[in-house]
């Protein structure tokens, strides 16, 4: 799974997978395809019973409930802006061809 999985007519980018117990994993994605974790697990014969998102980029979600929103701190905004600026610098015309 960590090396990429064929789903949705593509192969997922490598991700980090850590087995926490016989029935629990931590998966850190570097891309976010539609239902990616569920599809990756299905490919290997795993059934996903529940998912919990911990963070999005540098934004830790904490106890934020589904559908809820919160304001970002000035530090979170600055870090997010830096991450986005760096990702724009690495974006090329070839990336749009995938």
TrEMBL record:
Origin species: bioreactor metagenome
Keyword Isomerase: yes
Protein name, UniProt field: 23S rRNA pseudouridine(2604) synthase
Keywords for this protein: Isomerase
Gene3D superfamilies, per database record: Alpha-L RNA-binding motif, Pseudouridine synthase I, catalytic domain, N-terminal subdomain
Enzyme's top EC category: isomerase
Biological processes per GO annotation: pseudouridine synthesis
GO molecular function: 23S rRNA pseudouridine(2604) synthase activity; RNA binding
Entry keyword Isomerase: yes
SUPFAM superfamilies from the UniProt entry: Pseudouridine synthase
The protein's Enzyme Commission number: 5.4.99.21
